[in-house]
Amino acid sequence: MQYKVKHLAVIMDGNGRWAKQRGLPRIEGHRKGAEAARLLIQNSHNFGITYLTLYAFSAENWNRPKQEVSDLLGLLGLYLKQELSSLHNNGVRIKVIGDLSLLEPSLQRQIHDAVNITCDNKGLTLCVAFSYGGRAEILRACKALIQKSSNHNLEMSELEFRQYLYDPEMPDVDLLIRTSGERRISNFLLWYIAYAELYFTDILWPDFSTIDLQNALEDFNLRTRNFGFARTE
Fold first, then answer.
1. Which one of the listed residues 15, 43, 61, 207 is annotated catalytic?
2. Domains detected in the chain
């Protein structure tokens, strides 16, 4: 089946609960979640999705227990180390959005290298939202706009404003998926999801499979998008 989704965004929720249900440490849920993310990346390429944004670590996640935060940061570094070569060879372009200044310099360099190595790839764009908050992104853009506006003329188009966001090239989200039964957007991509279709599933993220992705994409295909305009039927 041909799917209409070009930009897919995913809130990968439920790793901790998955681990708790099995009597495992939370980090094991995050590791299993990383495997689910790897499968999603492969499937996104196969299903014609051109832009995939994953909510890997929110700005609020810094408030989690120090050990869990440390584990998540280490997992990101390990994932980049293990997967960069494969992603690059498959034409995946890597981007990372968020306040990366809060990360250790070594991890910042690792992210910077991954982005630079893959920047000319023409396949799937994989955007990882890490240390990310939607409100903070918009506030940051407003501050940058004011600082760079010599005459303080703030009349501009949405397209011009986008140039101050983390990723000016990011297209609007077509479909936002959230797993684990939670039905909220949690400060994710607030600018880009204005007209996105939302899909919620009770499945915990580590269990999210190819079939589950297909179900979400098929559901999207059945929807009629009006982008804020009133329906005519």
1. 61
2. 7-132+173-221 (3.40.1180.10)
